[in-house]
């Protein structure tokens, strides 16, 4: 009998922390630790957006490499536990997702829920915290944090018109100029808090940025545009100069508290 290596809940991409810019990717992977099998789902479900953000791993690697900056990626599928939710959020471990029942998540004991939080969710978030603290220490300023996601072109039978969306809560320092820069690109349809609203209590940006007064933005790229490696490369090349321009601005590196539309921080 062979023993697999223990499952790593996150991956760090090394980069120059003195630049004060950190990438995070909550949904880049669809992997499950061996003990969870396939959560009782057919393999086809792991090809879909419900298991991970298609194209984001390649986008994150390319953007980090182009800019020479560090990144933290969660290595487990959001079907196991969703790192982009507060630990008390009812969708933290989904029992039903976009029409699919997840047998391995239903029913679930309180003990199993705590185990997933302690073994996967918290180690990832602690890695994000440690990276932000390290970038702050090495750059001597508050880091700008950029979160990378992708969205499905169709949801509940409706086509989404945006190529990219910038999601945010109340801190517009990074989102506003980023939306402006993207809208200058010919032919791009840019969502402002579309296809989702970026104010979500307890999510990754809330936990690490809104609560800490760090400038941040969440970028959602439509998955069909980055599913191919060439598309991910193209988007990394598009985003790199924009993020670099943002990162040059002094106000991206000041601790400021804007609060949250979801209520007091
Ligand atoms: Zn996502």
Automatic annotation (TrEMBL):
One Pfam family assigned to this protein is: FGase
Recorded superkingdom = Bacteria
Annotated InterPro entries: N-FG_amidohydro (IPR007709), UCP029730 (IPR011227)
Q: What is this protein called?
A: N-formylglutamate amidohydrolase
